[in-house]
TrEMBL record:
Native source species: Laetiporus sulphureus 93-53
Cell compartment(s), UniProt: Nucleus, Nucleolus
Name assigned to this protein: 25S rRNA adenine-N(1) methyltransferase
Keyword Nucleus applies: yes
UniProtKB keywords: Methyltransferase, Nucleus, S-adenosyl-L-methionine, Transferase
């Protein structure tokens, strides 16, 4: 009788070398870091789909089992804390720093830093999805930053779901809102659109919205192109004043200004459901209103 095979437990992809642990100089392997982040995004999206199926009463037994399996895998790969750790590693100085450097550079180019310093005032910034509390520590003379995240990993970061913030309480309260690697983390396409609308409401007149996304979200999506994204932003009432990405790069950045009225040149219905804009083997990232 053949011997039973022994199943060796796989090492979780969140296992990090000593060089990746807090207090050490190096970062973990970039490939492992990106693999974890991508897998976590897939799991969160799948979890949202299964929760909707359960709410609708569709295939309850299978949906509940699937949800339990997804939760087990999320736990196995380290949960949200592992995602935060890997994302923080990705912001290390040996990887070119975080996206806050781009925003600070653009704000200085617009003369906002010098104007605030001259008037002895500060710009109120809401940093959504903050992984570190001190991203804007070098700008405290002209930026008053409020960092928030779904799960705070530091006492100085407010634990808050942006989508649950009071629209009335925060209406026209903020000079700047940063959504850096946030929209792509939201599992539901409609919630991504709702997040942009909420940001528009919360910005002061002429306020600025900073967005950072992985470049494939706009250059390799079936449903979203740079032109389509620009049209969607205009519908919401956001005009593009700066953008940056390069072919073959990893990230795309936008700086948008809140405009007095929403654009009426484009039919909003074009952004309310998925429409294939580029066929072929591509990702499914989309933002819907």
């Amino acid at each position: 009788m053949p011997k039973a095979r022994k199943h060796k437990r796989k090492t979780p992809i969140t296992t990090v070398e000593a060089s990746a642990r807090p207090g050490t100089r190096g970062s973990s392997n970039p490939i492992a870091t990106r693999a974890l982040i991508r897998r976590f995004h897939v799991l969160i999206k799948r979890r949202a789909q299964l929760e909707k199926a359960i709410e609708a009463g569709d295939g309850l037994e299978n949906a509940r089992k699937g949800l339990a399996d997804v939760d087990d895998e999320i736990e196995e790969v380290g949960g949200l804390s592992a995602y935060q750790r890997m994302s923080t590693i990705g912001q290390g100085s040996d990887r070119g720093g975080g996206s806050e450097k781009v925003l600070i550079e653009w704000l200085k180019e617009l003369g906002l830093a010098s104007a605030s310093l001259k008037k002895h005032t500060t710009l109120r910034l809401l940093e959504v999805g903050a992984l570190k509390p001190d991203n804007y520590a070098s700008c405290t003379a002209w930026i008053q930053n409020t960092p928030i995240d779904l799960r705070s990993n530091h006492p100085a970061i407010v634990e808050q779901d942006f989508l649950l913030m009071s629209e009335a309480e925060h209406r026209e309260k903020w000079d700047i809102i940063s959504l850096s690697l946030v929209l792509n983390f939201v599992p539901d396409a409609k919630d991504r659109g709702r997040m942009l609308r909420l940001a528009h409401t919360m910005l002061r007149p002429d306020g600025l919205l900073f967005i950072a996304l992985p470049l494939p979200c706009i250059l390799n999506s079936r449903y979203l192109t740079p032109e389509h994204f620009a049209g969607l932003l205009q519908i919401i009432g956001l005009s593009m004043i700066k953008s940056r990405w390069k072919e073959g790069g990893k990230m795309a950045y936008w700086l948008l200004r809140k405009t007095p009225g929403k654009s009426h040149t484009t039919d909003p219905a074009a952004y309310e459901s998925k429409k294939v804009l580029r066929p072929g083997k591509r990702n499914n990232f989309v933002i819907l209103l």
